Amino acid sequence: MRIGLVDVDGKGNGFPNLALMKISAYHKAQGDEVEWANPMFGKYDKVYKSKVFTFSEDDGGIYDCEVIKGGTGYNIHTKLPAEIDAMQPDYTIYNIDSKLAYGFLTRGCPNKCKWCVVPIKEGKVQAYRDVDDIAVDGRTNLILMDNNILASDYGLKQIEKIIERGYRVDFNQALDARLITPKIAELLAKVKWIDVIRLGCDTPKQVVECERAMRLIDEARGKPKQYLLYTMLVDDIKEAYARLSHWRDNKRVRLVAQPYRDFNDPRQVIPQWQRDMARWAMRREIYARCDFKDYEPRKGFKCKEYF
Question: Which of 96, 117, 170, 253 could form a disulfide with 91 if both were Cys (CB 3.0 to 4.6 A apart)?
C-alpha cells in the first residue's frame, strides 16, 4: 500500500505531529510506502489528515482514495487505534535530531480552564507511558507534552526516574506553579533541563504562584534559572496588561502570550488588542524597552487608545 500523510497545521512549523509519526511507523512496519501526500502527483491507497488546532485552515487537497481525518481540529473525540498509538514514532519524516524524542507520560488534566480542550478530550490526569519507553535508541533529550504532570503521583515518580536516568527534558506545555511545593521544587531542581522551565501564568492569582514557585526552585538549585511563562489573553484588557507588565523588569522571565480561542466557535474573531498585546509581549526587544500603552504596532496608532 502507498500511504499519504497531511499535517494540516503545517509540516515543518517546529512542532512535529506525533500522531502522524506513529501512523507512519505503523504502516512502514506493515511494509507500506509512506510519504507526505501530494494531491497533484501522488496516487495513494489511503491518506491520513491530522489537524490539531480548530483554527488551522483545512487542507484543500482532493485524493482519489480513502481519507482518514483525525485530531482535535477535526473532532475532539478522535483517538488513534491502540495498535498505532503503541508504536514508537517515526522521527525520520520530520528529520528530527537523533537524540531528541517526543511523547507523553500522562494524559489529561484535573483543571477546567475554559480555553483548554484537554479535560473534555482526555478527562482527569492519568498514567500513559513510562519515560524509558520514550527515551529509546539513544534519544535522551525529551520533549514531554504532558498537560499537568505535577497533578499526578505517577507523573512525579516519572520525574524521579528522569533524574535517575539523567535524561534532559522540556515539559513544553508548562508546569502548574500552584502545585509546586518545597518538596516538588527540590525534585525539579535536580532535573536536567533542555532549556527554560515553563510555567502557566493565565490568571492574576498565578502571578503570585509563579513568583513563589520560581523562588522555591531557585533556592533548591542554589542558582537562578530562566523561565518561560505561558499567558492567556482572555476578556479583560486591563487585567491582561497588568499581568504581562508585571514581568518587564525580570530579565530571567520570557513570555508566550496567547489570544483566547473559543474552540466551540469556529467563527470567532480574535480582538485586535489581543493580537497586538501578544506581539508586544513576545518581542523581547519591544517588551523590555516599551510599555504596552506606548507600543505602536501600526503607524499612527498607539495601544493606549485601547484603554
Answer: 96
C-alpha distance from residue 27 to each of 32, 34, 82, 258 (Å): 5, 7, 14, 36
Q: Taking Cα atoms as reference points, which of 73, 50, 59, 71 lies closest to residue 266?
A: 73
Dihedral of the alpha carbons of 225, 228, 229, 231, in degrees to the nearest 10: 170
Q: Within 13 Å and on the Cβ side, how many CA atoms surround 132?
A: 5
Residue type, 71: G
Strand partners, 103: 144
Q: State the Rg of the chain over Cα.
A: 21
Measured distance CA(87)–CA(249) in Å, rounded = 46
The 3-state DSSP class for residue 100 equals: strand
Cα separation, 53 vs 74, in Å, equals: 8
| pLDDT exceeds cutoff 90 at 126 | yes
Q: Tell which residue, 240, 245, 158, 238, has the closest CA to residue 203.
A: 240
Query: What is the band of 176 on the pLDDT scale with cuts at 50, 70, 90?
Result: very high
User: Which pLDDT belongs to residue 232?
Assistant: 94
Indicate whether this model's pTM tops 0.85. yes
